[in-house]
Design a protein that fits this description.
The complex is a heterodimer. By secondary structure, chain A is of the alpha/beta class. Chain A has seven helices and seven strands; from the N terminus they run E-H-H-H-E-H-E-H-E-E-E-E-H-H. The chains are: A alpha/beta, B alpha/beta.
Chain lengths: 165, 417
């Protein structure tokens, strides 16, 4: 497992450039992840690797190609100080785990990283770092394995039945 | 405690009081899909076991990012969507009408109090029409196609008040770039931005669209202007709808309030490679440019082209610069054409293309080579956005783009006679 570190405001154009958006296959998209931004990524990334970033990860376009490309590359989770809204929701929908951790900056490349979702912390080289909980309504989607799996079981939805985070 | 405009919209839809922070499964009044995110949304709809689209009459489908098809893959995506539209009874504007957000507005598909989603981040533009409108991903859109509703977390609202009158050749784009620089690229994440004040009140729909369009560039879930006579006049030409009052209560709870005075605002330019890097044009004046792009959902309307024509006068654009002008829609193209502006732009040396996203999305034509510099009236200047990751994109208003196109370098439009 390898930690790939990125800075603040990593936008979806950086994750997957506009010229590859006619592609929908995860493995094909993965070949172009971070192209021109971090060219070694696509060749060296391995299944189970983790991305660690600063604030506002995934800002910009709503393209779901971005989390799909990362998942296709084998990334299981993205840990960031904060996420852009659409990317966060897209990641959960496609089964890529977005973890908000305000101490993400203390994680360095080479660290071993594990997550305890129910406990609400990361384990970095044996030490615990608290994470923000995933809102309940989205946790149901995470538990189902993504929005497709969640929605497949439903015939209809309870429109405007309010629930709290 | 009073309610914000956005809380009122969700309360109206849900027929009960709903406050910021609550999660609701709200019905969707319109769902917009285009040729980039649409094919994936349709696949997800099928994977979810979808058979019949819940409300096909509430789906807006069109192609704008890669039109006319610029690759075989793009052509195949268009075919795939056409088949789906035919089968499901969805009206498809195909490649005919222009950029999704402009078309959604001018077809009257976003009205005050409605909840609209689009599989495109700049869907927040419809807030100019008093709707709550937000960009979503393709899987969420697949869900909307199947169920006609989606989970929303009702957002807190930031009130942005802009007062005063703009100087000549300074306008809405300069204002929103300066607000983005102030609030920052993630300063409004998960929040709605409500635009109020005399400078907004006196703006036409085109200017309001420019402002709401760029709410996402601060991370916002939505941008919205309280509907007034300008909004209602616009929508009532398109749809039979009765005006009603819709605004935040005086005692509504805002998470933040910011006030701007536009009287002293200089033309703004966002430096590479983030939208929140806006500076006064004087700080970057003289920067050599290779390409100027005037168009996009942000600034591709007739009013924008009038601004360009006013600055251009009888001059020609510099031979050192490629000036690409693309109206945002067929209707805007016709208005510009009938006013004689297209002929003036072509005579001045510009390349005028048919309505589409063009260089804005960096996937079709108008791409930049390494080391090249573009000045653009669009909404994003991320590294690689318009081609090479070693190219640079600056963002500005149509007036600044026109002035800079004349001189081949970034130029303050107020200094052009």
């Amino acid at each position: 497992m390898r930690v790939w570190k990125f800075g603040d405001n990593i936008d979806t154009d950086a994750i997957i450039p506009g010229r590859f958006l006619t592609i929908y296959d995860p493995a094909e998209l993965a070949k172009h992840a971070f192209e021109g931004i971090r060219d070694e990524f696509a060749g060296e990334v391995k299944t189970g690797d983790v991305i660690v970033a600063g604030k506002n990860f995934g800002c910009g376009s709503s393209r779901e190609h971005a989390p799909i490309a990362l998942k296709g590359a084998g990334i299981t989770m993205v840990i960031a100080e904060s996420f852009a809204r659409i990317f966060y929701r897209n990641a959960i929908n496609v089964g890529l785990l977005p973890i908000v951790c305000d101490k993400a900056g203390t994680i360095i490349e080479g660290n071993s990283v594990m997550v305890d979702l129910t406990g609400g912390y990361l384990i970095i080289e044996g030490k615990k770092l608290p994470t923000e909980p995933i809102p309940d309504f989205l946790m149901k989607i995470v538990d189902a394995g993504g929005l497709v799996e969640y929605a497949r079981k439903l015939e209809e939805v309870p429109v405007c039945t309010a629930s709290h985070r | 405690m009073g309610a914000t405009l956005v809380e009122k919209i969700f309360s109206m839809k849900c027929k009960k009081d709903v406050s910021a922070g609550e999660v609701v499964m709200a019905p969707v009044d319109n769902a917009m899909i285009h040729d980039i995110t649409g094919p994936l949304a349709i696949r997800k709809f099928h994977e979810m076991g979808g058979k019949h689209v819940q409300n096909p009459e509430k789906v807006t489908m069109l192609f704008d990012h890669q039109v006319p098809a610029d690759s075989i893959e793009a052509a195949e995506n268009h075919v795939y969507m056409r088949h789906f539209a035919n089968k499901q009874g969805i009206f498809n504007y195909d490649i005919r009408e222009g950029v999704c957000h402009q078309v959604t507005m001018e077809m009257g598909k976003a009205a005050p109090g409605e909840i609209i989603v689009g599989a495109d981040s700049h869907t927040c533009m419809y807030g100019a029409g008093g709707a709550f409108a937000t960009g979503i991903g393709s899987t969420d859109m697949g869900f909307v196609l199947k169920f006609g509703a989606l989970y929303f977390r009702v957002p807190e609202t930031i009130n942005v008040t802009a007062e005063g009158s703009f100087q000549e050749r300074v306008g809405p784009k300069d204002l929103i770039l300066s607000i983005a620089a102030d609030i920052g690229a993630d300063g409004a994440t998960y929040k709605a931005i409500e635009f109020t004040g005399s400078a907004i009140k006196s703006m036409d729909m085109s200017g309001r669209m420019t402002c709401c369009n760029m709410a996402i560039e601060m991370g916002a879930k939505a941008g919205i202007v309280p509907p007034d006579s300008i909004t209602w006049d616009y929508i009532r030409k398109l749809r039979d709808i009765k005006p009603f009052s819709l605004e935040s209560d005086p005692d509504a709870s805002f998470i933040d309030k910011r006030t701007y005075d536009v009287a002293d605002l200089a033309p703004q330019v966002a430096e590479p490679h983030n939208v929140d890097l806006g500076v006064d044009v004087s700080k970057v004046a003289g920067t050599k440019i290779d390409q100027v792009f005037i168009g996009s959902c942000t600034n591709g309307r007739f009013e924008d082209f009038e601004e360009v024509a006013e600055v251009l006068g009888d001059r020609k654009f510099s031979d050192a610069v490629r000036v690409i002008i693309i109206p945002a829609s067929r209707q805007e193209y016709l208005k510009t054409l009938r006013a004689g502006l297209i002929e003036r732009f072509v005579l001045a040396g510009a390349l005028v293309e048919a309505p589409c996203c063009g260089p804005c999305m960096g996937g079709a034509f108008g791409l930049l080579a390494p080391g090249e510099v573009s000045l653009s009236t669009s909404n994003r200047n991320f590294k690689g956005r318009q081609g090479s990751t070693r190219a640079s994109v600056y963002l500005c208003s149509p007036a600044t783009a026109a002035a800079s196109g004349i001189y081949g370098e970034i130029t303050d439009p107020r200094e052009v006679e």
